[in-house]
Every structure is written in structure tokens, then in C-alpha cells.
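One chain given next:
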Amino acid sequence: MSERTHAYRPEIDGLRAFAVLPVIFFHAGVPGFTGGFVGVDVFFVISGYLITALLMAELEETGRVSILGFYERRARRLVPALFFMLAIVSVLAGFILWPAMLIEFGVNAAASAVFLSNVSLWLQGGYFGGPGETNALLHTWSLAVEEQYYILVPPALWAAWWLGRHRAILALIVISIVTSLFIAEMGTKYAATANYYLLPSRAWELMIGALASVVWAKGKRVSAPLQDPLGWLGLLLIAGSVVFITEDTPFPGVWAIPSTLGTALLLISAGPGTWIGRLLTLRVFVFFGLISYSLYLWHQPLLALYRVQAGEDASAVGLGVMVVASVAMGWISWRYVERPFRNRSFMTQAKVLLSTVACLGVVGATGVFFVTTRGLVNRYPEHIGSMLAVSMAERGEYVRTRHGAEVRDQEFSGNQPRVLLIGDSFSQDFYNVIRESDAFAGYQISADYIAARCQFHLDGAMPEGGIAPRDVLRCGTRDNRINEFTLSRAQEADIVILAFFWRDWAALQLPQTLAGLNLRDDTQTIVIGSKYFSTPDMRGLETMTVQDLSEYRSPLDPATAEVNAILAEAPIEAEFVDVMDLLCDGQESCRVFTPTGEMISHDNRYLTQEGARYLGSLLFSSDGPLSRFGRN
């Protein structure tokens, strides 16, 4: 992703191929590339290495850094190809994406214009973030990280040079690596989404490259006998990360060390006289390395837009065609956009910087246009557009906001009957059902939130493999397990309601877990079953009438039916409520829309406001299973 040093090293272009191809294969779903996303980390190290080499050469030659000159080079390198991609993809997105997705695209495009797409994706991401495989600008987060790094590094190196030349710069780099890596490792445990996207937990990867550049200055390499062994070890570390790391691996903490260290080893060892250098300089690898930036820019939009357009008909063949199309567009962008603008005789510095501002302004304005028009919602009939224009982030806010503001961790007081609601995000969902129905009037409600990945279980009662390794520490914290505050409120409660996205092991252990709460004999216990909704093809919605929507049915999800059967048969003194029973006429006929044609769930699991209102009418009506708590 960064320009070459003064002395061209074709093996670095070859190394770029080993960065970009795993990323593409990962996003295309190619088996064996579960950790292909580490290719971005390889890019980061290469960028840190090359950028530091350029800055150090300038400092050693002039004693200063030309900030404008540096940003001119960055603008020539990054902006033309980025603008070319965004201009074409924005047009395609306007035709292909349905309104909520186009709003998200607009937000990310505007954020890309100011190199803050990593922040935008972090704020959209996490539990309620939309699926990354249909996010056309998901990959721009790494460009934002690099640009933020480029804002900080030139003045920082210049200041360090002024303070103590090479020693001060080396100290700055080492301190930055240690600090950032510590932040990254802690972030994997406590703030996974922010940790993945933001610069503080990624800077150490770029600084690994910077360290290699400073210690082995001016393209020097390790001694000849070590070059091939270290180079092959580096390639093995990258390949091992690509194959063995998965999306469940805590990242980018210590698990990112192999790929970043492997890249650094290749940078300081691979050369013309080595076997590893000969491998990296094979024409096929150099070709993919040369077009790697443009190829990286094009692959995600084409794959994402294809998946949206094809829907359930998306196939491996179709994805393969998109990969080939990405290579073609990557070559066109490199040949006719990147190369001309990187020629210093093509446009003056002032024109380059002004053109950069203008191009990014157009991108930002386009993004704002998509947002302010609610994703061009007027393309659709009103009853369809009103559903399609609500973003995943807005839906997620509805799910969680009232629960957190009104009942979470509230202490009981007074003489009103007391309800303790325990659960994960499905309990937030259930609280919305209560509120939309005005149920449990005259009751005090307190809620205890436990993350779905941690489930409802007693300490020491979790089976091996029940909780993913990356979540063990998080699930051991006070807020994600049954704690003393949970137990004290459970013993005060008149009614305890459990609402989870149940895993089978937690459902099987429910009798022991309930016994551990030590509830009073007169406490009523209500267990709310899991739910899962099929999502209709959004393309098919465009021509559906309100009547069509109200009559639309889909099969019951087998896994949901299985776990609910476990709960229904559990030997417990509790009332079990299977909400899917209320929504289904049989295994093959479950509602997806309300009788008035509104979407019940926005993402298979969580209820829309209309869905919560409709489910509440079924639960708390005069003939509903919880009618005694409804409005009289």
C-alpha cells in the first residue's frame, strides 16, 4: 500500500502479493484461507518499513521533513485510485443497494473522504453491525489507519531526530511498539471491535516495519548465511497465520505477531541472491504486487455488490468471476490511474493537493447525498421503503436503548411486585415487547444482562468448549456471570424471567442453574424460548403488496426448534413460553411480517418496534400465555 523506496526491490512487490491475495481469498470465502485477513497486517508492516525509509533518508540528507512534500507523495499514491473506485462503485451502489445499505454506504463513503472510515465502521460494528460480506467499503478501514499514521509519524520522527537523531527515533519506535501491542492485547479482551479498527491497537504493526527499516537501514539485509533461513521462516509464519487463524482468534493482539514478524523477516532477508528472493520475484507475484493497492480497493466492492444483487443465489462461481473482475479492474486502475499520477512531472504539488481536496470533497458530498435522501428511498412504494430505509445501527439502538436506560442493574425498592429479567440481547428484545404492550403495569422491573457468548450458567458448570477461548476472560467478569447482585435480586423477586439466545448446553444445564439461584418457593419463573426468523429476499420485496407481506411464510429454523424442545422438556418448576409457537402454524409456516405487512425482525433474531408490538399482542392478549400480566 505504500510506494517504493528509492532503490526498487522487486521482492517487496512480490511480498505484497502474499498480502493481497489471502485477503481476497478470505473475502471470497475460499476454503483454507480462514486467516486471510492477516494480509492487511502484512501490508501495514511493509508500509511502515517503506515510509520510515523515505523519511529517514530525507532526515539524514536535509535534517528536516517536508510535510507538504510527504503529503503530496501520499496523495499521488493513494487518492487517484481511491477516487476512481469510489466514483464507479457509488453509481453501482445507487442501483444495487437497498436504502438502509445505501445509507451505510454513504456514511462510509463520507468517512473515507476524511480517512475516518475505521472510526465509522467501529461505531457501526460490534453486536448489531451489518454483515461485513455485503459492506462494499468495509476494507477502507485499513486505508484510514494508514492515513492517520501518516499524519502522526512525519512530525514525530522529525521531533525525535531533533532531540537525539537515530537513538531517539529508535527509542520512539520501540516504546510505540510496546505500548500499542499492550493496548492491542488488552483490547482483544475488553473492546474487540474498537481494537480491530482503531490506530492505537494497530500502530505497533506499522512500527514493526519502521523498526526493521531503522535497524537495517538503506535496504541492508541480515548476513548472507541467515538470509534464506530467516526468509523461509518469515514466509512460513505468514502462511501459518493465513491457514490457522480464524475470525474467532483474539486479534490483533499477540496472535498478530507471527504475520508481522514474518513480514519483517522477509523485508530484511529476501534479496536477489536468495532462494526466497527468487520466489518473491517470480513475474506472477511481482504482477500482483504491482497492482496490489488497486486490486485491494476493487475486490471488496465487487464481491459485496455481487452478494447483495445475487442474494441467496450467490455462488462460488459468481464469486470467482468477481475475483477475476477485481484483477481486471485492479490492472486498469494501476495502469491508467496510479501510474500517471505517480509521475512527478504530471501536475504540480499545488495542483495535486487541490485536486485531492476536490476529489475527496466530491466523495464526501456523494455520501452525504445518500444519507440525506435516506438511501434514495423514494425508489420504492411507501410501505416497502419505510422498512428498507431503517439502518442496522438504528434497529440496534431500538433493541438495546430502553433496557439499558430504564431497568438494567436497578435495585428493588418499595412494595410493588418485583420482576427480575435475566438474559442477553434477547432479554433487551423482550423488555421492548413488555414496553410496547404496557405489560407488567404496577410491577418493578430490574434487569441483569449477560452476554450471549457467556450464556446462563453457574461457575464451574460450563462444559469444555461451551465458551470460545477468546471469551473466557470476558465471561469471567462480574457483569457476564451470575454474581452476588444477581442472587440478591433473584431472592427478592416475585417473578424471574429468563430470555436468552439459548445454546443447547446452557439449556441442558438450566435445572442446575436455576437451583443455584436459590429462589423463594413462591417465586414464579418464566423461561422465554429462543427465536429465529427467516429473512426474505429484499429484491422480492419491491413488488409485494401489503397483502402479499401479511401472507408470506417461511420454515421454522431447525436449531431453534431443537433448543426450544430441550427447554420445554427440562425438569424445572417454571413456565416455558415458546414465542415461535405463537408465530408459526407449523414447521413450514412461520410469520415474517405482521398482519399489517410490517417486518417482525430486521436481522433474523431481533425485533423491530412493529415486531415487538405484534409479539406483545400475542403474548399478553386475553388468550395469550402471559395474559395475566397484560393490560386489563
The first helix runs from residue 10 to 27. The first strand starts at residue 418 and ends at 423. The CA atoms of residues 21 and 631 lie 60 Å apart.
